[in-house]
Structures are given as structure tokens and as C-alpha cells.
Write a structure and sequence with these properties.
Length: about 180
């Protein structure tokens, strides 16, 4: 609240009925207004104890998590789609322009993992290549792996450093199919 809006509220306490926290906030200290404020504070304390508190927290933890996800190929747009947090807000958190966020916003960001990556997102290729190498050790050729993946069957084209999420998932399905 700005000072002007606080001043406007305190100028006319009659705007709010007695027995409400709003009236207590504009300096009414009658028994009914004090009781309403006490009830409000008790409900907030109970929410904090149960983990439902949604106050302001530092954005540092969420920022670190967003940067970690970004390094793993999960961009802010994928996080936005998974969390219903505006892309612009995620960008402000990510760059450090937003220092405080709501606790629920932090919880939603921290719940994100690699599973929300877009099909075309790039992820580290080391796990994928270890599965490909297992298949090759089992006697498959790269051309056969390519064919089993539904590609042209001529050659297996995967980056050594990074692969798309879709390619990693397809290799994983193939690996599990023959590993069992």
C-alpha cells in the first residue's frame, strides 16, 4: 500500500464496519475490532504452522533452481507452462530484479524438474550415450538403433554433448525394452 492509499483509509474509518480487521487497521480499538484482528492473526499463525503460509520470501532459492533447470535444458517458458507463473515474473526472478516472492510461487518453482522440459530442449547427452553404448555392446549396430527409433535406419545422429529431450526419451524407451 502506498502512503496515499493508507492516508485515504485512515481519513475515513467509517468506510469499514466495526468487528472487522479492516476497521482495526484504521486504528479502531473497540472490543469487536480487536477480536476480529486476533482471529485474523490466529488464522495466519495456524497457516504458517501447517505450511500454508504465503508470505514473502527471498527469491534466491527459486533463482538458483531456475538457473539449474536452465543449465539442464529446461527454460523459463517450460517452467511458466508447468506452474502458471507468468514468463515475465520468472524472468525477473531469474535475473535478480525480483528479490522477494510469495512462498507459494517459490514452492511451485521448486517442484519443477527435468520432466517438464519441452521435446526440443537440449539436455546433457552422457546418460543417453551410455544407453546407446549398452545397445551397441549387445550387438546392435548404430543403423539398427536408428531403424528401431523410427529414423531412416542409415545412421544414428545424436550429439555427443547434448541431445533433445525427445531423443533422450526415445533412446530410454528402446533401452528399457531390450534391457528386460
Amino acid at each position: 500500500m502506498t502512503r496515499a492509499s493508507v492516508k485515504a483509509l485512515t481519513a475515513d474509518p467509517e468506510r469499514f464496519p466495526h468487528g472487522t480487521r479492516a476497521r482495526y487497521s484504521v486504528k479502531c480499538r473497540c472490543d469487536d475490532c480487536r477480536a476480529a484482528n486476533t482471529a485474523y492473526e490466529r488464522s495466519r499463525a495456524a497457516a504458517r504452522r501447517s505450511g500454508e503460509w504465503n508470505g514473502l520470501v527471498s527469491a534466491a532459492k527459486a533463482r538458483r533452481h531456475l538457473l539449474k533447470l536452465s543449465d539442464q535444458g529446461v527454460g523459463r517458458r517450460a517452467v511458466s507452462a508447468a506452474t502458471d507463473i507468468a514468463d515475465s515474473v520468472l524472468q525477473l526472478i531469474r535475473t535478480g530484479a525480483k528479490q522477494k516472492i510469495r512462498a507459494e510461487t517459490e514452492r511451485r518453482i521448486l517442484r519443477c524438474d527435468l520432466s517438464i522440459a519441452s521435446d526440443g530442449a537440449l539436455v546433457p547427452a552422457d546418460r543417453t550415450w551410455s544407453k546407446v553404448e549398452w545397445l551397441l555392446d549387445e550387438g546392435f549396430t548404430k543403423a539398427k538403433v536408428s531403424e528401431l527409433l523410427g529414423n531412416n535406419g542409415v545412421s544414428l545422429q545424436l550429439g555427443r554433448d547434448r541431445v533433445t529431450v525427445k531423443s533422450a526419451q526415445r533412446i530410454d524407451v528402446l533401452f528399457r525394452r531390450f534391457q528386460a
